[in-house]
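Colleagues,

Please find the record for the two-part complex below.
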Amino acid sequence: DGGITQSPKYLFRKEGQNVTLSCEQNLNHDAMYWYRQDPGQGLRLIYYSQIVNDFQKGDIAEGYSVSREKKESFPLTVTSAQKNPTAFYLCASSLGQREKLFFGSGTQLSVL
Amino acid sequence: EDQVTQSPEALRLQEGESSSLNCSYTVSGLRGLFWYRQDPGKGPEFLFTLYSAGEEKEKERLKATLTKKESFLHITAPKPEDSATYLCAVHGSSNTGKLIFGQGTTLQVKP
């Protein structure tokens, strides 16, 4: 079945540590996105990519980095510069710009 | 600035008690309004896309409608399995590649 796979499901970060969240899709979608979800708040866009080897900052990109070396993969690194990383992170993809998004099952990141 | 506001934040219904969720939006040039359902600890699941005022879409007990300022998600005779958080989001002409989300309405349906 086609879909989006996020891993791990749960992740713990120590202070000063960088951690990477994985996102893989086999839907052959061009566009991929990373959102952050905090309790009681809407999804906020971190980064998005509309094509391989290109990506743009979203509304809350500070403290995060991404790469898009393959169409299927869009990993997100939460760097030590992100002082409040505890949140639910969602990866999504779409066939093109302004199309409906398909979401992965999410990664819950917590700070030790 | 593009904005999406959902109300109420939380809604409790008895099984079979119909109601509506509201999504008010301010966007320059609507290019699509999306409804998603999200279960706890999971990613959002797509429900509907609406593009123009007057448009309606239905799926089982859910019906989404759209005006120039807001969208409603009507739930008819809900069942406990309809309990979830419902998210509304919009694409505008000025926010290329960005979907603006509301904060969601958490629905609980009691048997």
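Chain B has a mean pLDDT of 94.

Comments are welcome before we finalize the supplementary table.
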